[in-house]
């Protein structure tokens, strides 16, 4: 392409007048492949391309989730926008359909061509190809919005100065539209990772250097001769940087899980509750460690008001605060169900909730929400203490508005009771749910998605929100409760301590009911996804590992012995145990506080001929569950005879759960290095028709197991094939 030439790709204008003739930033062959894909496929086919290719660059550049970072901004359609570092155009696509014009700047000709081809149906995009420093003097100075999405951190790559980040901002800010008093009227929006994002503490590599804890240790390996290294910042540093460049007003937003694949946007005016932050395993691009449960960490961080410091990403907007204080995106769905939910705050502080269609195909779904709310309101009525239904009022533009309901989600209240060890308080809330949500069950209106998360409690007043899935059919209260419990339990394994005999005794919900509810929930999710591969399964298909260091230790007898020795040095009581091997059997009891490594022990018995072992256990009288780990490596297991206080239980598998795959012949395939068989002792006591065993109140469990170890490489291959 000759210098100074302009090329049209559909309605998109490509300006090469400042292009140096060579791309200095490129991901290689994959970008040429992506260019071929977008040339030959419409945007509607991008989801299929992502599912077919199953690689990080395709997902990153073509996913509709990328546009969520700007989709919540209230454009009027008259805005003039500048996007710096537009790349292959994921954000450009989200902007072009909602503003008057988009001017893009990117130094890669291949990426710019991908941008132009995917957006060729638009006629309001101009792409300047080349270095921003060369293009900047010719740019206008009246932009309503300027976007730096994942760009500021690279300033040192093209500005050879120790103060490159401030120099970059001072070069950009004058291009914003000015008010009559000479101050900026336009807005600059920066999306960037947080140097102290919680995911980095939990075991994710730094996004740019791909090193563990690189940002947390303040990029200690960066030297003066490595100016090309990207660098991210904490909130205080970002704020000080912008203030020093003359910015008076600015707001911080918190894209979750991050700005790349945003599912929610929080703000200082609407921070998250811990229960909302449960979608944390999102390592699409590389393997990661899992050093702790991020949800549990977020619960404490949110409780202490520290979320703004540990959010994985920031969205920083200059200017007065925007009306939206919160946004949630439901676009990991079939087009007919894609929506966006916003909480809007007026100048007088009043709030409303707005739902809009995130895809033209979803307009009918949104329009039905008013009727759905009316049907449910007719079922529950307005009597004192009755479940309230949040109303939805259809607007002329096709959106629906609802009043903002204050309160705490029932899910959070249940979690609080669990954390406090308040079982009676937990079951009291479940009983109240049954009474309120299960009322008038014969009425032909129900919401199968009336989960604990979708009910807000404000004292005695309970309100159901997000009733978009209402069905004009009756649903028994037991089925409604089973679905809500199954969704609740599936979100956190620690919550399952409340499943079991007590739940059945109080509410008649058995494990079989929960299994059926799980199947119903799976059918519901398949309907919502419309046959698409959603982000969760896609991450697994892309083959990026999540490694728990404890499992690494357990796979290696030397490391395990070292860890146990360190515990012993710290004074942690160590049970008598034989010399450990990968085929050692470990036993745990749950007496109400869950399973604990500190109270577990290894059997003296070892596997003998043909990999068989037989053993008996004295079970404490207050034990609710028994866990037997048949090995500390992947394995095949065939449970044999099972006796409880001398009584054989041929059907004991009904009272057993495991983290392996049950086979028709009764064997179990464990592809994990932490295989577990968990026995519900309360159900077993009922099955054996025995309240207690010996006079001292203990029970005796005897069992036989046949085990064959499996190489880790075989286990990994089996997991990949299954997924």
Shape: globular
Structural class from helices and strands?
alpha+beta
Q: Roughly how many Å apart are the termini?
A: 45 Å
Domain unit count: 3
Treating each run of at least 4 consecutive H or I residues as one helix, how many helices?
25
Global mean pLDDT: 89
Second-tier CATH architecture of the largest domain: 3-Layer(aba) Sandwich
Low-confidence stretches: none
Q: What percentage of residues falls in helices of 4 or more residues?
A: 25-40%
Rounded radius of gyration (Å): 29 Å
CATH fold annotation of the largest domain:
Rossmann fold
Strand order of the largest sheet: 1-2-5-4-3-6-7-11-8-9-12-13-14-17-16
CATH class of the largest domain: Alpha Beta
> How would a textbook summarize the main sheet?
15 strands, mixed
The CATH homologous superfamily of the largest domain is named Vaccinia Virus protein VP39
How many beta-strand elements?
32
Structure description:
By secondary structure, the protein is α+β, with helices and mostly antiparallel strands. The chain has 3 domains: 6-345, Rossmann fold, CATH 3.40.50.150; 348-531, no CATH class; 575-722, no CATH class. Helices cover 31% and strands 21% of the residues. It has 25 helices and 32 strands. The protein has a 15-stranded mixed β-sheet. Strands 24, 26, 27, 29, 30 and 32 form a 6-stranded antiparallel β-sheet that branches.
